[in-house]
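We modelled the chain as a single entity of 876 amino acids. Its sequence is:
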Amino acid sequence: MAERSARWPLVGRDGELADLAEVLDDRSRGSVLICGPAGVGKTRLADEFLAIAAAAGRACGRATASAAAAQIPLGALAHLLPPAVGRNRSDAVALFDGVLAAFRAAGPKPFVLLVNDMHLLDHTSLTLLTQLVDATAVFLVGTVRTGEPIPDAVSALWRGDRGVRVDLAELSGPQVHQLLCAVLGGPVEAGTVADVYAVSRGNLLFVRELVRGALASGRLVAEQGVWRLTGPLVSTAPLVELVERHLGAAEPAGRAVLDLLATVGPVGLTELAGVAAMELLEQLERGGLVTVMVEGRRHEVSLAHPLYAEVLRGRLPLLTRRRLLLQHADRVERTGARRSGDPLRVATWRLDADGTADPELLLAATRMARYGHDFATVRRLALATLAKRAGVETRLLLGEALYELGRFAEAEAELAIAQHDAVAESDLVPVIATRVRNLTWGMLAPERALQVSHGGRARVCGAAGRNELLAVEARVQLHSGHPAEAMKTLAAQDAVDLRTAVLRAVPLAAGLVLTGQCERGLAVARQGFEDHRRLGEQFAMVHPSTHLINEVLALSEAGRLADAAERAIEGSELAVRDRSAIGRIWFAYHHGRCALLSGRPRTAYHWFAESVALCRDKNYPWPRRLVLCALATAAAVRGQVGPARNALAEAAALGDIGYLACEQQLGWAWTAAASGDLAGARQLLLAAADQAADTAHYCSEAWLRHDVVRLGEPASVCDRLVDLAAQGESDLIDCYARHARAAVADDPELLAGAADRFEALGASLYAAEVALAAALAYRRSGRPRDAARLDGRAADLIQKCEDAQTPGLLRPAAAVPLTRRESEVVMLAARGATSKEIAGALHLSARTVDNHLQSAYAKLGVTRRAELATVLDRVR
């Protein structure tokens, strides 16, 4: 793992490094000053620049300034001075002449000198360096910490024509992601990146210490190649010492303000003015310890960095923290608690201090936490509310929070009580809807969920409540494998209000896509998202990212793979921001699905692995089976039979509700194909395709039947694929049908055209397989030049396919192409199967297998089985 090395990779500084390299060769420039806050990576960038200079043949050296060294004139530069000069520093002229001569003797070009923390140099050293730069004997690279007093001699270097100043900012979120992947040597889950970035704010030193602490504590782990956090980030001793050193600059009165901010979070300037003098607050701001945010007419003061709060809280005695919480809660309530989030803050402060609060305040705070998707806080506040006063709304909030937190049995208990106690329809309907969600996707009991909804609907008189429950039931039917039934249920609805329209859009969009109406489904998903934004936050409501999940599904099934991947990124960011675990699971799955369709199985495997890890981490049983089957597919497409079988073994032991059950068979089919059993793989695919047809999963059916084409039997599925293409709204299914027709006709021109269409969609693996098939067809037609052209094109496409190893990419080195049956026999024999085993797998006699082998030997120019593996030329 890369983190074990002492030197981290340089990430996010390519532009600055390129600019510095240009300055090095510019004779009109003599110095570079790299400025930025502590820990931002100034020294790391300077080191990389020094390495570039050394590689270019320049003489180089370094020095580090410090407050201690500054007590001695030239103390930081002593090791660079010639011995004779070092013994006599009183003669300034002789000193300069001697040092000048020494540096010029080092090489024909100016000596490149790196000085860390240049602002701490003593006056004599600064004067000497300035003179050496002016004399072109030294090219000076200095790092300067912003926020510290800067001597005039230093600032003069970048104010002059010969100096260049480079200001470094903290890394962005994407740059932190890139860094973590490079350091850990593999992909990192999006939520983990968000957590590291939120705490570190992109400070390179903080990122490094947080990663070290997470690794040391065992909270940063790799599952199936994907890194993720399994618990909160922890600070290391060096990080705490660094923060304490920075906070130590505050005087006692200032430390009291910092303690308050660490305990209660951001505080309005007006509120804080009653605690501390304005001059003190200005001093803390100038020292970089607090920051002031302006929103409208309100000024809010907070600690300058999240880590400051963690370190300060860790040093506070319990009674001190309690006093600060209660005093500030009283202070906010005396001013009327006018801000929208004040009830949540005050309730949390009082709970932290005393373990209790007013029940009305607690309930108001619970609602606010729900709107913020902070379900751990919702659970805590709702339990505290119930301890004071029971109520249907409180139990609803608690049940929903327990569902989101993966505590399904507890959620069912609370929601069942709430449903029993509910009298008004405005209470009953959202309780039933939430209970149905928990029973279906938490407890994997969709039939029980529908019974609960049907029974509850009998108690509902209003059209709005009835329509909402019908939308909920349609979603259950859709995800339990019955999209046609879901569409019938939705058709039974009357005119719907905005809330029901939002809920209705979820099963309607997905149902349209699954039944082949991709463009209509896309339009419904987009309208649902817009309606959700207009509706605002409400209880018992799906997360807004659910509509984006349907949009990604629609785009991918329509063949707009690049658009689908881009929208999946946006949705994933929304789910991470709102801490929606199920949203993160689904977007990771759909990222993987897009990658699989695009022909990037390694990328797909990593996304599926992330989704599986999140399912385990959040205790979600669904959609874990679906994702594991997809994971097996991605592994098998790369020829990794062992990981594929492991994933399938885990999937087989899990419960499921039937969503995309037919598509799950891809994992078993491709694992069989990777094992050499092409006939068995085709049988699995055809059976699954028939299941998909019976349940109106027409996009899934098309995918499954097209994979039969890819495994060498187009005639059995061609007519059905043509029908599916005619009745659907998908360029991807249209390409499937074109490929099938071309394969049945063995027409090289049609095959080449199908390859063109697949490549235009971004489906590189499909395009590569079809291009190879076209090359073979051209060769059989006696057109070797066209065959060579398609071979070259296929080779270019395969470079994008991340080591895929499908049967369609196997090209035996034979003068006369093998038949389909000969290819199947050769693949199994090359893997070590005996004639008897091959006969059993392909439903042939052993004599027929031997006859096919002899024919293949003659075409391949070999005489025994041991030579088969070496002549199967895998084109990648």
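As a brief sanity check on the tokenised model: The CA atoms of residues 340 and 368 lie 9 Å apart. DSSP finds 44 helices and twelve strands in the chain.
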